Amino acid sequence: MAEQRYNVPAGVAGANTAEKLPPQNLEAEQSVLGSLLLKQLELVGGREYLMDLTNAVPSAANVGHYAHIVRKKSTLRNLLYASHQITQLGYDESDDVDALLDQAEQKLFAISQRSLRQNFISIKSVLHDTFERIEKLHQGDGRLRGISTGFFDLDDKLSGLQASDLIVIAARPSVGKTSLAMDLARHMAVSEKKSVGIFSLEMSKEQLVDRLLCTQAGVELWRMRTGKLSQSPQHDDFPRIGHAMGELSEANIFIDDGANVNIMEIRTKARRLAAEQGCDCIIVDYLQLMEGRSNRNGDNRVQEVAEITRALKSIARELNIPVVALSQLSRAVEQQQGAAIPRLAHLRESGTIEQDADVVLFIYRKSADRKYHIDELSAEDRNLAEIHIAKHRNGPTGVVKLFFNEKLVSFQNLTRPGSRTAVSASAPPPMPDPGALPDEVDAPPF
């Protein structure tokens, strides 16, 4: 038998002894041990409790209950361990308190989600899940893999917004980034019954709600914001607005319009929303207005934006939801020869936006291109918008054409073959015949 050594605390009898010798008298040792155990008997429940344990024979019929007990105790142990780690963080003298808070919340969030990580997973188990997913998609009769955008040509290219993807929507100012993002949010929440979180760093919650309401109601935004609404029997705006308010009030859209928030706050709020309300998609408007982790090391803006994009991608993967981030473009796009159609190199302030994004969508409208005068454009070009899929990590790229309604600040599907009516990104409320509608909801003239 291998020699065993024991570490004895100082002050305890025998602490200076290098090793313990086996007992010389087994009967004496048994009597001493028995007396010690008898003293502890009451502490463990007494004789009656021990008898109950001997009679409680486990049964395979209760295996689910036993597994629940094991899982519960494991969660409690993990909670104790995490609390110890968080206590240690409290003694950290680092100036970056936001980073410490993020670490603490991450530890608790990991327990609440029971996200036990494994270093390696057998490809056999992954292949099994993959085959089931492929078979389900094959039998799904064209069902999208992700969340529908409401734009069928865009869905054909992307198969919807995919979980864990970072989708970047970029354009020059006043081209329609926020409008497209709100169309996506409205369709996902109203038509698809999804939960959407919106972080608006540029516009207030009132401005966003005005946009959502006017588009859902089919009422011109400027007339609604100025109170110049129609009450004529033919074009009464109030029933439309009332109907739209009812639909939007039931939609799971959550807006945070805090200004000057950093990426740590957004991550914290996104986790909280996912835990309390559920969250199927996050929209951030827009990326260049965000701050990094307090810019503690004096990093330049390029490094800060790189940190932000990596964190947004991390949020998408952690919550397993699509994250849509709006982004500005550099002025270089307006200085190139010909039409100012954006390219990946025009993403402002950081090349890591291109690297971290799974999908990059550029919005281009001739009516917003300074190289074209509005009076020189045809009626078709005035309302035509092009969505350039410049990057698609797991699928095709290309161009999708949409109809842009400036008065409703909304993108709509172009006409299907054989049809002359424009279809909104989400089903609009019941309205009068299209021929009797006011100008703001006229179908495109092409």
Fold and architecture overview:
The chain has a domain at 151-441: Rossmann fold, CATH 3.40.50. A hairpin with a 5-residue loop joins β7 and β8 (398-405). With 446 residues, it is an alpha/beta fold. It starts with 25 loop residues before the first helix and ends in a 22-residue tail after the last strand. The chain is built from 15 helices and ten strands. Residues 1-18 and 417-446 have low confidence and may be disordered. The chain is elongated. It has helices at residues 26-41, 46-55, 63-89, 97-112, 123-138, 152-158, 177-191, 205-217, 221-226, 237-249, 263-276, 301-319, 332-335, 352-356, 379-383; strands spanning 166-171, 195-200, 252-256, 281-285, 323-328, 359-364, 384-392, 398-405, 410-413, 423-424. A ten-stranded mixed sheet has the order 3-2-4-5-1-6-7-8-9-10, with helices on both faces.
